[in-house]
Specification:
The complex is a heterodimer of chains A (300) and B (407). Chain A contains nine helices and ten strands. Chain A has 300 residues and is α/β, with parallel strands linked by helices. In chain A, the strands form three sheets. A six-stranded mixed beta sheet of chain A has the order 5-4-3-6-7-10, with helices on both faces. A two-stranded antiparallel ribbon of chain A has the order 1-2. A two-stranded antiparallel sheet of chain A has the order 8-9. With 407 residues, chain B is α/β, with parallel strands linked by helices. Chain B contains ten helices and 17 strands. In chain B, the strands form three sheets. Chain B has an eight-stranded mixed beta sheet. In chain B, strand 14 and strand 15 form a beta hairpin. In chain B, helix 2 runs antiparallel to helix 10 and helix 4 packs parallel to helix 5. Chain B is rod-shaped, with a radius of gyration of 38 Å. The chains are: A alpha/beta (300), B alpha/beta (407). The interface between A and B is large, with 46 and 26 residues.
Chain lengths: 300, 407
Amino acid sequence: MSERTDLLPPHLLDRLGGLELIARTVVRGFITGLHRAPLRGTGLDFAGHRAYQQGDELRHVDWRLVGRTDRYFVRQFREDANLRAWLVVDATASMGYAEPHGIPKLRYATILAAALAHIMLGSGDAVGLATFGDDVRLEAVPRSRRGHLHDLLIALQRLHAGGTASAAAALDRTADTLPRRGRIVLISDLLESDDGAALIDAAARIRARGDELVVLRVLTPTEAGRRAAPAATWYDPEQPDHAVPAELEADASLAERVRDYYDTLAARLRAHGAEYVALFTDQPVETALRRWIAARPVQR
Amino acid sequence: MNALVFAQPLWLAAGAVALLVPIVLHLIAPRPPARAPLPTARFVEPQARARRYLSRRPRDPLLLALRCLFLALLFCALAGPRIAPPRSGTADILLIDPAADDTIVETARTGSDLEVVTDSFAGFADVLARLPRAAFTDTRADSVRVTWIAPFSQAGWTPGTTTMRAAWPGAIALVEAPLPTADTTTARGTAAVLVEGEAGRAIELALEALGYDFGADAAAAGVVVSAGPLPQGATREGATIIAVEDTGDDASLALFADGITVRDIAGSAIALAGDERVLATWDDGDIAAVVAVRDGRCMVRTGIDLRHPATRTAPELPELLRLLASGCAKNEPNRALPLGDAARTMLAGAGLPAAVAVASLPGSDVAGVALARWLLLTALVVAAAETLVAARRDRGTTRASPGTPRA
């Protein structure tokens, strides 16, 4: 899939306005040119017929039955047969980091989550929002009704980076609410204090239940060692007492160490059947979504 | 308009050099790295040694400015600044011996800024000692030249020149002025009479040895030696009267008179008055004998105790008496006792600067408004501010602040 040049970079996208406008812009840019629905087959179960009532959508009229019975019936679908999905957004202290002239990772994650919510709700899925920062919070339970997107966007707008809660705790908490196979989309920088060991275990549990797990890793180029930075005493916002004086441009193997960490994590996640996509904050959000879609396995 | 003057300006130069020290240190000191958040800091390899390099911009400009200001104030205070009335030009100061001829004195007065006149030979040392203060307070010049106008005819000055020379830090131009012309309308007497004194007989014999005839008629005497007041009409017109004055001091001194050196004779100093001129001096410079014409008679006043045994036995006494007796016959300045060359050289201060800077004179530092204490006080305040700022900087670099991640 080639990179589009007409897409707004994240720092300019962020200036468009409210999160709703940004999400619509992203989705429009994302869907344009796609030949198929991005998230087809999300589980619309036929639940039977009922008599046509004024106001029912004509597309739901079962015309075959009309031909056979001369009476108008509409198909009914079970709402709870739709996919229930959780968007789990990392709001720990490390997500507040931003490069010079860049947007914070948390802002990138909220735009990504808003776009995903827009897409999934448009596909009829029930989408909820959970965050973990100071602690795990279920901001909005999965719903698919009209207006729920607005609730999700409001909750996303109010997020602030802080705290050191674990992603594994958030995954377990959200997975416990899913009655049957659902989808959990984790948007995080995956900088866990235990190098992701608990996260891997949680992913294994989720996959064992049959739920779908998508991990979208968000990172800045500087954190990945791909961009130089002047000499400073660097400290992890989630571990501020530990500081390291260094010039990043003089640390040639930083990119390699960071890459090794994430490659190991990705391999372990994929080994349990989770999807993993590495995203950088200097990529347009639309591109990030397309990379994810392109990397998805065959839709069920 | 007042001027800012410095008593020790070399401290300013030292301060300029001292200012270079903090400037250089702030340029070459290694910069402490700023704390910055990086969530992947766990993967960063620590680099132990911070780079040290010479920067075009000094580290911590505020701290540097405070340190430079402190040094500048301190060294300015050490330089002794004062706000003083403005001074310019060179003033000429004349020291005039009243015995000097008026003609040359008037000529020298033209163009001088300050005139110090002493009527006492012995006062010149005091005059020179007081001269610096007078030069500073009575002139608006920033340097002064001293010219001394005097006959310089006293050999007795030689011992005293060292004291006089030490009082003035610069050279002194010596202008030798002639003595006023003496009145020569006198006549030598042909006899001498001793009017009083128990030892007068000895004087009589001495004068007789000089060729003076004694007679019973005092009125006919040509030279009269008197230890007290003479009766009216005791002398005739044209006589020479040698009046011995007893000032009460009785010392054994050496006498210098017209090439004659008489040692170990008794006598005391007398003061020069009016139109008198000096005939003889003691070795310490005090006047031993003076002469003047009064009412047609030659009046010789002397402090030489002619009655003292030491005087009477001095082998040079006859020559001395002849000098005293013929005092009015001399119509030229008494150059028999010139100031020695060594004394002249010492008095003139050969090798010293002709013009002396007023600011360097003793007492010049008391004029004007002293600023040193105010500068020192300000320097203390600046030092306190520097200490506070430096302490805050140290706290800021060692504080383990978590930083504020952006949302």
